[in-house]
Amino acid sequence: MRTKFSGILTLFLAFMVQMTFAQSKTITGTVTDGSGLPLPGVNVIIQGTSNGTQTDFDGNYSISASTGDILVFSYIGFTTQNQTVGASNTVNVKLEAGEELDEVVVTALGIKRKQDEITTANQVVKSEELTQAQNPNVAQGLAGKVSGLQINTTNSGVNQNVRINLRGNRSLTGDNQALIVIDGVISSSQVLTALDPNIIEDINIIKGANGAALYGSRGSNGVFIVTTKKGSGGDKLTVAVNSATSFEEIAYIPQRQTRYGQGWNGEHVNYENGGWGPEFDGSLQPVGLPQEDGSYRFFPYVSLGLSLIHI
Question: Whole-model pTM above 0.85?
Fold first, then answer.
């Protein structure tokens, strides 16, 4: 009888031990990369189930699991790692970098293609290249970074107008500028230069007549496909401050002659804008067309740089 009772007690204790091991507990930990930096957004899933969670901004996670469960840690660009839950309630994981993802290129209408799928001649300029020298506009940021690109400034000043040509001119009378497309909308070089380089994600430059296959005849001179940055959707607010200062000064002022006055070929013509009349002598001369009563307005025949006297 005593032996039978001992056997029952042993089975009961074994059952209780099994129940204890099968009891769920809270597992916490931190997921980092190879350099020890926390990884936010890492997927943590119990293998064979749909139960899971994600790491927060600091790489921390918390999940309810049982001893013996296998936790699967997965993150884009890193090798997936499995960890078995043991007696400890803390499981820290260091993920190793996996294979690099193929570069994605934005083509017509915002369609994304892998680099090896593009059959046209193109070049992608990233945001880091545009802003590495704190250039005040995109045109200056592109200078020297794209083969075959020619940027001509048509007027100087704060709001510069530029002409953007790829691989030279193709027409003597037509427009030779490349087509500018910003976030899928056809734009102009003036709008491109007005954009802050810090808000641009990348620029895909399609060279030559290959752009006509995507954008028609307007893309035959090449296409600049500009993609601006979008919100990252993070939980925390991020503020970035960038500052750049540029100074300009006049290189030279064109010289003007102050010897000859209004007219042509040495003769005074009071209604012409020519500056090759007779020499200034200080006499009163009619200027402009006659008034309603037939009279003229007279001014001293002197250089404006010497006298502004009105008679």
Answer: no
